[in-house]
Amino acid sequence: MLSLWLNVIAGGVLIGLVYGLVALGLTIIFGVMRVVNFAHGEMVVFGIYIGYWTVQICDIPIVLAAAIAAVVMFVFGYLLETLVVKRFVNRPHHYQFIVFIGLSLLFSGVLLMSFGPDPRPTASQLSFQTVSVGPLTLDWARIQAAATAGLLIAALGAYLKYSAFGRSLRGAANNRLGGLVVGLNIPRVYAVTFGIGAACAGVAGALISPLFDAQPYLAVDFTLRPS
Fold it and tell me: Tens digits of per-residue pLDDT, 57-71?
């Protein structure tokens, strides 16, 4: 029984790091732009599908699939903010809620029409490999996802703390008007911020694609995770 509980706790901690990456993307968007991205879960599902298709078609490692998901979702998030979201940043919150809930429904519908409702498991060899450490038996897919997510969280935190763009982002988050006064390109900061948030979601989705079957209605598990 002790071994069972230790395995459950260790597995929860590992997958929790991936959820932490998802939450980091959502928090960055809200902290800087003051909007709640209710379509964030769908962006995670986009990452799961990217992981699924890149592994199916190209037979590449999951980490490389996550890198592809990062690029694709950053561009997607940047364009989405530029074309749609920026029009509602300064609107009342109920306007923002309607827009993002509408986007979440749109994204789910696109996934459903494109891939159908059937679950699609990612055929990764990591799903069948385990490592034993004392009483613990953990699968490599979960370990790799947790380690990659942890490194990305640390790297992104360091980048936002020490880089010039990170200072611009923190300035825009603390005082938008003051940032405009000192010459910050706030629209660009917002677009890049949304792109980073979307990239976090996409990477997390790709990393857990060996653990979760790709299906359109999985998004609610990531947007509104029950406690």
Answer: 888 889 999 999 999
List Cα–Cα distances, 159 to 20, 23, 155, in angstroms. 17, 17, 6
Strands (E), 116-183: 130-133, 136-139
Residue 189 makes CB contacts below 8 A (sequence gap 6+) with 32, 165, 168, 169, 172, 179
Angle at CA of residue 154, ends 126 and 6, nearest 5°: 50
Condensed to tens digits (0 to 9), the pLDDT of residues 105-164 reads 999 999 999 998 888 888 666 666 777 777 787 888 889 999 999 999 999 999 999 999
Report helix, strand or coil for 124: coil
* Nearest partner of 114 among 206, 66, 50, 62, judged by Cα: 50
Q: Are 139 and 126 spatial neighbours (Cβ–Cβ below 8 Å)?
A: yes
